[in-house]
Amino acid sequence: METYEQLTIGHVVGWAASGAMIIGGIVPFIPQYKEIKEKQDTEGFSLYVCLTLLIANILRILFWFGRRFELPLLIQSILMIAMMFFMIKVCIDIQNKHQITKQKDRVFTDFNIKYFWKWTEFQSYVDFILVFAFIGAVLMYLLINVPIFVESIGLFALLTEAMLGLPQFLRNFNNKSTEGMSIAMVAMWTMGDTFKTCYFIKRNAPVQFSICGTLQILIDLAILAQVYIYRSNILTVRATGRVD
Fold first, then answer.
1. How many CB atoms lie within 10 A of CB 200?
2. How far is CA 37 from the centre of its chain?
3. pLDDT tens-digit map of 226-241
4. pLDDT of 117-141, one tens digit each?
5. Exposure pattern of 117-145 as b/e (b: 16+ CB <10 Å)?
6. Is the distance from CB of 108 to CB of 128 less than 8 angstroms?
7. How far apart are alpha carbons 39 and 71 in whole angstroms?
8. Residue 152 · residue 183 · CB < 8 Å
9. By percentage, how much of the chain surpasses pLDDT 70?
10. What is the pLDDT of residues 56-102, one digit of tens each?
């Protein structure tokens, strides 16, 4: 039979793990934010990372209404959405500041697929996400009693989140360099994804969480491998300002 002290320690560990889950997702973006601000350059960071996480966490919140999971995971999603809007605002401000010639503003209401998620106004990013969230909320309200729909939303939310590193991986691959990308950010992604996958398994979260967490770890490791593969190109960029 467990003693009072054992129960207390168990509660403290549980609260600590929940707290780590809540803030752990946004912490890796702090070094990337610092790098962007210091260099005043957004070239190494893909805004599609923000798109991926915004969609994933909105879908995860919708999934919560259909199938309740732990509250810390819900709070984590809300904080992550706020963080992604913050990162977008910083990047758009810097990009507009460094525009050499004045170009026509590209906005969401132009409905030009060519410039999707390449808008020049922060409000356009907010507008798109609001429209996406509204459509998702209406569908969840209408189909909340359809189990296959609810489970599909959960799976799609977590698969989307598992693809978090893919835009960064592709950007690095196209540039043949990881210059401008915060290695600390990716290292923290890897540690965080490993922790949360273990957390999902330990707390018996829906199986979608564990499967997608494992996939996320594999993508994180692939990005870290790029740091090693493209290490010589980084030296070339710093010496000549170009990628061979």
1. 24
2. 19
3. 888 887 665 555 545 5
4. 999 999 999 999 999 999 999 999 9
5. eebeebebbeebbeeebeebeeebeeeee
6. yes
7. 37
8. no
9. 84
10. 999 999 999 988 877 888 888 999 999 999 999 999 999 888 776 66
Question: What does the alpha-carbon distance between residue 16 and residue 144 come to, in Å, rounded to a whole number?
Answer: 33
**Region of 242 on the Ramachandran plot (φ > 0 left; ψ -120 to 50 alpha; else beta):** beta
Distances (CA, A) of 141 to 69, 130, 136, 145, 233: 18, 16, 9, 9, 51
CA 214 to chain centre: 15
Task: Look at the block and give the residue holding tokens 């070239």.
Answer: 43
Residue 111 region, left (φ>0) first, then alpha (ψ -120 to 50), else beta? left
CA 170 – CA 76 distance, rounded (Å): 26
Give the orientation angle of helix 71-97 with respect to helix 4-24, to 10 degrees: 30
Residues 6+ apart with CB under 8 A from 179: 43, 44, 233, 234, 237, 238, 243
Give the pLDDT of residue 185. Answer: 78
Q: What is the pLDDT of residues 186-235, one digit of tens each?
A: 888 788 888 878 877 777 777 777 787 888 888 888 888 888 888 766 55
The number of residues in the chain equals 244
Average pLDDT, the chain: 82
DSSP 57: H
| pLDDT-derived band at 15, boundaries 50, 70, 90 | low
Which residues have C-beta within 8 Å of that of residue 195, sequence separation ≥ 6?
A: 20, 24
First CA to last CA distance, the chain: 66
CA dihedral 58, 60, 63, 65 (to 10 degrees): -70
Q: How far apart are CA 108 and CA 116, in angstroms?
A: 7
